[in-house]
Give the backbone structure.
Amino acid sequence: MFLITFVMILSFPESGFTLKGDGSSSSRPVRLDCVKASEQCLKEYSCSTRYRTMRQCVAGRESNFSAVQGSEAQGECRTAIEAMRQSTLNNCRCRRGMKKEKNCLRIFWSIYQSLQGNDLLEYSPYESVNSRLSDIFRLAPIIAVEPASTKQNNCLNAAKACNLNDTCKKYRSSYITPCTSRVSVSEVCNKRKCQKALRQFFDKVPSKYSYGMLFCACPSGDQTACAERRRQTIVPVCSYEDKDKPNCLSLQNSCKTNYICRSRLADFISNCQPEAHSISGCLRESYADCLLSYSGLIGTVMTPNYVRFLGITLSPWCDCSSSGNSKPDCDKFSEYFTNNRCLRNAIQAFGNGTDVGVWQPQPPIQPTALEPSITRRGGKDRTGNGLDSLSDMNKLDLGDDSLYNICGTLQVK
């Protein structure tokens, strides 16, 4: 079961603070990070006691307290669980690249699994970022972002721009070295160090430089060389490829055992969910959030990359062979990368220099056929597998070119 839902906006006035966006007088509450929320809880006797009781009650993730003996003990467990639902720990989130990120994520998943009683990737543990692609472009005059139909090699320009920026150059060199240094006859590199350095690159380098290299548009007259330069951005021979391709569901399970990988995957699923009735193709209507969550996967065991042929086709290093009865579930998970309209449109929009936030209002895209199993926004009738919505997206009568050209057909202010 792989259920996809979205982060519910919860508020807690006493522990919130405000974050002001650039050029905007509006503000929104930001939740405590889980490390601070945990420290705050442990300082309070009542919260600390309930917290420890809850952890004991759900040892082994027994959400129905079957491991707890006696009705009185089970009552204490339910009381502790309900108390934690009202605490700031239930609302806490983490920030990508923050200090103590792994510890923060450990606390989040501990609370989440305790309160939800399941192991599903239902919510992103990361605080949402209020940004648009257009904000990135306004800050990036050095990168000449041109439509893909011109002769401009934006991928080459992005690499040059990175070398002219001290931060980008520093962190790029930091991952190039471990990703290209052979450690033995049988090992082309130290994959663990390579992936860690890649995570730091995408966490620390300003998006206008890292995105320019990762999502650059290729001119129609130079697709092959440009696309290969873009594919080589993350040094795939070390960070991406391996001797054998694992099953995608096995890779997913492996990812879920690591706090950072699990969190980045949940964030990606939350922010890049496609939606048939959305003008952008994204349920959350934010290309910037989708691209941020996609780049967050790079440097984990779920690292995705461009596939070796033309077009915007991406995939983790896995396939669905040897899936047995789980083949449909495996295909749905794989297609979340290989056939995700939201992700493709987001990458295409970056390459074209457009953003959903600056488009003129247009009628929503209507699917040619709707089936009862479609997961609708805010609907209560969900199917057994949260990726069914992606499967429904694939029933749309849209060719690959339509996926790439949707941005170009919309009027820009």
